[in-house]
Specification:
The protein is α/β, with parallel strands linked by helices. It contains five helices and five strands.
Length: about 170
Amino acid sequence: MPVLPDYLAPDLDIVFCGMAAGPRSAAIGHYYAGRGNRFWTILHETGLAPAQLAPEEDARVLDFGIGLTDLAKEASGVDSALAPTAFDPDRLRRVLDRWRPRRLAFTGRTSARIALGLKKNPLPGLCRAEGLPPVWVLPSTSGAANRYWDPVPWQDLARDVASSRMP
């Protein structure tokens, strides 16, 4: 059983992929619910979501052309406590093949490294990976990663999405 459901649909501008549901998200059943998590705030501040959403409104992201998933669907907890076997990059590729979003964005460098099969964490920004839509590697929004926070890659992603929506 997945800890959190995927929020996916055809024709999405972007699918955000995290590592796994954190403890609070798993407890309440909603994405990015940890105290101090910036995900919902940065979505609104950058214009990726036209309204400020709360974790309990996570399903509404579909209304804004956004999807949500995780690398570990059947495990939860802090990243360092998750077993390597909890992550399923092949499932992520199947999801992307099925739904074909315009972009994939990892909400943390470690999730990008694991999903893309890299030896070290990639730098934030836009990158390419064979067989995937354009991939954005973003700084983690987790409160535990505050010292590494940088909104600029999130702003760059928002500009990319906005430019593709222009007539």
